[in-house]
Write a structure and sequence with these properties.
There is one protein chain. This protein is an all-alpha fold. The chain has 15 helices and no strands. The protein has helices spanning about 1-10, 15-25, 30-45, 45-65, 70-80, 85-100, 105-115, 120-135, 140-155, 160-170, 175-185, 195-210, 215-225, 230-245, 245-255. The longest helix is centred in the N-terminal third of the chain and has 17 residues, at about 45-65.
């Protein structure tokens, strides 16, 4: 009660706000605890304290009140106060990804990239891959290409980045880049779900044709046809090769 009386006299009295916050947290009165943390942030002039209260209020809103919208608002406000607050960025990245808000995710991933130690290669690879996927989903192909390439410079065998770069390069008409990725993927293509595997083999064949490598094109397309007999798209591309090479086409029809 003495804390409440103190706040009646001075609504920004920091020590009373902090004391009441801890009391409400101990009681499990999370709504009041969040209100007190908001008040503590408003009363503070210290950026470090403000970011701390905003972060704790955001986490409490999310974990105890299951109020995602309030949590997002508080955590973004935390990043405004402290642009390098790793804790807020970690929670935001997970929330935004889960809710499909990819248009807001890029800057948050940039924070995590800045804060992740340079020797944590797996984490940096994963973050660059996510940044690439987000940029691609947001229509920023150049940024996506750069992020995929950065991920692969850290781990040249990172399958999700190879898949992403292969398909984006193909869509951009960079067939040699796409073929390089298909080569590095090797038999990993066979672990994909069926429709994606079909598309990858089709695209590898089309990229090889564009690059002038008809032998590789036939190999990829025939692999696709063995997996998906009668596939109209693969047969159509193979037919164009057969017209260019009647003897090869005749041999293929016999098989």
């Amino acid at each position: 009660e003495c804390y409440q009386r103190a706040l009646e006299q001075d609504p920004a009295h920091g020590p009373s706000i902090l004391a009441l916050t801890e009391i409400y947290r101990a009681r499990g009165d999370w709504g009041k605890a969040v209100r007190m943390m908001r008040a503590a942030e408003a009363a503070s002039s210290s950026p470090a304290q403000k970011s701390r209260f905003l972060y704790e209020a955001g986490k409490t809103s999310l974990e105890q009140l299951e109020d995602t919208e309030s949590a997002l608002s508080l955590l973004f406000r935390c990043l405004e106060v402290d642009p390098d607050h790793q804790g807020a960025a970690e929670v935001l990245a997970e929330l935004l990804y889960e809710h499909g808000e990819l248009h807001r995710l890029g800057p948050v991933l940039e924070v995590l990239l800045r804060k992740t130690p340079r020797d944590d290669v797996p984490r940096l690879t994963e973050l660059n891959h996510k940044l690439a996927a987000v940029a691609e989903a947001n229509g920023d192909a150049q940024r996506a290409l750069a992020a995929y390439r950065k991920a692969l410079s850290l781990d040249g065998a990172h399958v999700p980045s190879l898949l992403g770069l292969a398909e984006l390069a193909f869509a951009q008409g960079d067939h040699r880049q796409a073929l390089d990725c298909y080569s590095r993927l090797g038999r990993e293509v066979e672990t994909l779900e069926p429709e994606r595997q079909r598309v990858m083999l089709l695209h590898e064949g089309q990229a090889a044709i564009a690059a002038g490598d008809k032998t590789r094109a036939r190999s990829a397309l025939e692999r696709g046809l063995n997996l998906y007999p009668g596939d109209a798209e693969i047969l159509g591309v193979l037919s164009s090769l057969q017209l260019d090479d009647p003897e090869r086409g005749f041999a293929f029809r016999l098989t």
